[in-house]
Amino acid sequence: MTSLIQSKSTRIDVRASVAVKQLLQEAARACHKNVSEFLLEAGVMAANQALADRRHFGLNKAQWEMFQQTLDRPVKSKPRVKKLLTQPGVLD
Questions:
Q1: For residue 6, what pLDDT is reported?
Q2: pLDDT on residue 63
Q3: Which of 35, 6, 13 is nearest to 22 (CA)?
Q4: What does pLDDT average to in each consecutive run of 10 residues of the chain (92 residues)?
Q5: Is the pTM for the entire model greater than 0.85?
Q6: 3-state secondary structure at position 88
Q7: Measuring CA to CA, how many Å separate 26 from each of 2, 5, 17, 20, 22?
């Protein structure tokens, strides 16, 4: 995560109240960081946590086996799905 935070190539602007700015400055000082480092680290951690269930899922051994079998099954032809995906949509 440190390399992700250290490789800066773009700017993020944030507007906050005076009270929030002071709170962030105090928290950053307590962590021996500047406000940018503090916000980036906290933001990246929050983003990873918010997206964790979309990136990782846990299965026990039986569930994993069933999942693998499902992935390995031959694809069934679904004419209605094929028709839906091949005909022009409302916005086309």
A1: 64
A2: 96
A3: 35
A4: 68 94 98 96 94 85 95 93 89 80
A5: no
A6: coil
A7: 22, 20, 14, 10, 6
Q: Is residue 86 part of a domain?
A: no
Domain range for 20 is 2-74
- Phi, psi (degrees; rounded to nearest 5) at 89: -85, 180
Does residue 33 fall inside a structural domain?
yes
Residue 32 exposed, middle or buried by CB count within 10 Å (0-12, 13-18, 19+)? exposed
> Which tokens sit at 43?
């933001």
Q: Where would I find the beta strands (DSSP E) of the chain?
A: none
Report d(CA 40, CA 46) in Å as an integer: 10
Q: Domain count for the chain, please give it.
A: 1
Nearest to 21 by CA among 44, 39, 7, 46: 39
Based on its alpha-carbon atoms, the radius of gyration of the chain, rounded to whole angstroms, reads 23
